[in-house]
Write the structure tokens for this entry.
Amino acid sequence: MLIDYFLQMIVFVPIIVSFAMIMSLLLNIELKGRSLFRTIYFLPVVIASGPVFEKLMSKGAMTFSGLANLGFVKMLQTNLPPVFSRVLAMFISGFIMILWYSGVQILVYLAGLQKIDKSMYEAAKIDGASRWQILWKITMPVLAPLTFVNTVYTIVTLSTFATSPIIKKILVDMYRPERGLGYASALAWIYFLSILAVIGIFSLISAIYRRKVKVV
């Protein structure tokens, strides 16, 4: 289970954070009805409770089954090494869940984008910077601390949500006569240390990126 957990973090966390950043950049563009679109993307956060998720998962609403049935996807899963095949299967099964977990992260990024001084963009345009250069030299460095916050939030949310199979196992073992509270407590501590390890790895990657940004 822990191996699947680490693979899930490796797959889902970068995708969710990247998706949230892209959507926040799009939702920050001045256009009619953008408040409505912001509400739509945050709505899943309001209704995303454990029972709701379990009901949706039982009905198959959280999976992209059509993608899994495509011929080239099945061929990839057959020819890829077992680890990569499991990663691909996780991505397909949790594709819709990525949309559900990105609402808060989008709001955090939007708040950061709103605080960027527009004169910085104007000065960059006067100096002849392209939109791509503005994105990588101004927007991304400013959002770097918020990316770290969103990464930690995403890890904690994915790890502690009620639908987590490890949490379910801990709860089940807690009430088993042959296992009991002691065994469940040991599992909980191992899981807690695993979460800290994942946060530490992503924190190290974030620190290296921010150091490079400052150097640039």
Q: What stands out?
A: DSSP finds twelve helices and no strands in the chain. Residues 31 and 37 are 10 Å apart (CA to CA).
